[in-house]
Write a structure and sequence with these properties.
By secondary structure, the chain is mainly α. The chain has one domain: Glycoprotein, Type 4 Pilin (2-Layer Sandwich). The protein is about 40% helix and about 5% strand. It has a three-stranded antiparallel sheet with strand order 1-2-3, with helices on one face. β1 and β2 form a beta hairpin. The longest helix has about 50 residues. The N and C termini lie far apart (about 110 Å).
């Protein structure tokens, strides 16, 4: 009988210990999951930012093509004052474009914005131009994910950017303005 009681007690003790995980085991598992999740989210955000930067460069290259078309038809680039709006509606101030297309140079009624929903910055004296985005923070300057993104590197025939240093590589392709 004593053996039977010991066996029964041993079975009961084992059954109680086998019911589930201890609090420590659960905390360790949650900590490991949190660490793995942090790594995955970090990689996802890095890839998201890289995609936004690449999209910005593509948009600026497309605007560069529209500006070159504007120059081919009008004989000059829109000035800083005329801005990128000159690609949508015929500019009224400054030099006039006599061969401006009825529908403008961009489909739609607005100049596209960068992936962070900010306006592109455009600078031009009518002979050369540069387009840039202030990046994620929407402010001049910045580092890392807040860095400004330029179509043309400073000193390559483009007007100097105000308030920020270029920290992103310029867009691929021909970055020189067409001669007048």
């Amino acid at each position: 009988m004593r053996k039977n009681m010991q066996f029964h007690f041993l079975q009961k003790t084992l059954a109680e210990n086998q019911k589930g995980f201890s609090l420590i085991e659960i905390l360790i598992a949650l900590t490991l999951l949190a660490l793995a999740g942090t790594f995955v989210v970090g990689k996802f955000l890095d890839n998201l930012h890289e995609g936004q930067v690449n999209s910005t460069k593509i948009q600026m290259s497309n605007l560069e093509g529209r500006l070159k078309e504007f120059r081919r038809k009008c004989g000059f680039y829109p000035t800083t004052e005329q801005g990128l709006e000159a690609l949508v509606t015929k500019p009224s101030g400054g030099r006039e474009c006599k061969d401006y297309p009825q529908n403008g140079f961009i489909d739609g009624d607005a100049v596209p914005k960068d992936p962070w929903d900010h306006d592109f910055v455009y600078e031009s004296d009518g002979k050369v131009f540069n387009i840039y985005s202030y990046g994620q923070d929407g402010e001049a300057g910045g580092e890392g994910t807040d860095a400004d993104i330029y179509l043309k590197a400073a000193g390559k025939g483009a007007p100097a950017a105000k308030g920020g240093a270029e920290t992103e590589a310029p867009a691929q392709g021909n970055n020189e303005a067409a001669p007048q």
